[in-house]
Amino acid sequence: MTDRLAVWLPKLLPGAHLSPNGNQKRIPQLVARDKRQMRADVCLGLLADDGVRARSKPFTCAHVYMELRWWKRIRGRNTYLPSDPFNAGYALKAAVDGIVDAGLLPDDSYKYIDVGSVKVRRVDTQDEEGLLIVISEIEEAA
Fold first, then answer.
1. pTM, rounded to two decimals
2. Which domains does the chain have, with CATH numbers?
């Protein structure tokens, strides 16, 4: 049986300055702020989960799947709502750092994450917005 952990973080969306497309001015201080916020929110959200707290050790090598669910675009909203999974992956890099900070992985290098994947999904209600993180143990990378 594969060791697997799934955690739903409701209402958690990347900050507006994490868009890799540069639709707004990419001010380094604001990008850094949004990265720190995403990292902290993911770490704290994971640490609040019973399944995470019950773990006695980090994953040895894992597949990390993240599904970003957002409701609709609202002008002036201070979040980034990507429709492109590769752009979402860039925006969610800080979320991987939060997974490491929560102690679920020793590091985010190739030694511990064999593969990662991101899915973007538009949902029907604002209550469905958030980030699903699924971490599955796999055999160590070569």
1. 0.90
2. 4-137 (3.30.1330)
